[in-house]
What does this fold into?
Amino acid sequence: MRWEVRLRGPDGRERSKSFRTRRDAEAWEREQHVALSRGAWSDPALARQTFEHWVAVWRAGCVHLAPNTRRGYENVLEVHLSPRFAGWRISAVDRAAVRMMVADMLASGSSPGTVRGARKVLRLVLATAVDAGALALNPCDGVRVPPSPRDEMVFLTHDQVHDLAHEIAHPPRPHRHPQQEWPAHDLLVRFAAYTGVRAGELAALRVDRLDLLRRRVAVAESLSEVAGYGIVIKAPKNGQPRSVPLPASLCEDVAAMIAADQLGPSDFIFRSPAGGPLRHQAFYNRHYRPAVLRAPDVPDRTRFHDLRHTCAAFLVAEGAHPLVVKERLGHSSITVTMDRYGHLFPELDAAVTDRLDVAIEHTRAGKTRANHSDGPVVALQRGAKSASELA
It folds into this structure.
């Protein structure tokens, strides 16, 4: 004899489950009613589906993702998640299993950033199961990963920027090859250091985005190379286009390069040596990194992104308000700006305080001279009432 329990879920559908004994049936029924009352009920049939099933469901809903993001998520699945959870029922991927995954990845030498990326993708897959009713709660919630050590930022001086630009444009002659020079790379380094535009945004800049009369450039796209997709052009980070001012010297150099290369309105400003889109990784490995190692006084750890940090430091040194830095660099919020560059502003704050001291001393000196000139009269007037009273 078997005992069957019928239960209606929150979606109105009826489920049933059979048991060998009445005790087991009643115990299961109580558990389900408690879960329903707490809002923690999950569909037993869906909970038996495998991890791979829910990965497929999640993939079907990822059409909105940018190619680069999608490729990154797929790589996490292939390397970290699918090998670990293949064949698991989704209900077995509980919080203890997630914590064990985090611990094992850290113990094997994965960086906190890599572990955090794996947890993020796992959370997205499990969220699909939660939305469908296969899980009551997302097991990734509350599982913490140690913070990643932040890369030390490099801030170049004006001399170092120009030394690096010169070095990248004039590399040593390769053995048994003619001398080659890359003046466009010189301009690219200086453009990055004095505008703060990201590498992908620089590669996507076209001639018609320039307004040399008003000395501005519109940053509206970002270019990247994604495995399996090729060259991808999308909106800039945070999805917000912006207009960036250009120093006059950069405008002159950009105009000269456009004229010399006979570029049209839709042509990229910065291109590969073959004339196509600038592929940042190839440029970095073949030109930028060797130039950093050759340039005198430029720290060996200087990344291309440090040119963006350098621009922020230049702006702060010239007294720019944090909001100006935020808008120039295209940060999503002022919090991001202050989190990354807030340590640069105390020096500016000290300079402002010094100027306040100068103003205070100047005012104090003026008041002192005025008091000395009419001091006795003022003293008599102030003391007149008490003097008459004493008399």
Q: What stands out?
A: The radius of gyration is 33 Å. The domain at 42-149 is CATH 1.10.150.130 (DNA polymerase; domain 1). The chain has 15 helices and seven strands.
